[in-house]
Design goal:
single chain
């Protein structure tokens, strides 16, 4: 059996939940993490838009891309 190695973020979360692993705490942490990653994504998209990497034309092109096909290809 292969041992699991936790990164520092995972270790911190495990220590934090050792004190209060309730469903309520889990819900709160999920909400905080969701807001954090949404903000980071929003900032990245703003930068891509401002730099010209992302545009309405590019978004229109991406609308027709079958993402599932690319995900299947990556698993190979």
């Amino acid at each position: 059996m292969e041992a699991t190695v936790f990164n520092p973020v995972q270790q911190h979360l495990l220590k934090m939940f050792a004190y209060d692993g309730s469903e309520e705490r889990l819900s709160e942490v999920k909400e905080v993490l969701s807001r954090y990653f949404f903000r980071k994504l929003d900032e990245s998209l703003d930068k891509a838009w401002e730099s010209g990497v992302l545009s309405q034309e590019r978004l229109d092109e991406l609308r027709n891309v079958d993402v599932r096909k690319y995900l299947k290809d990556e698993k190979k």
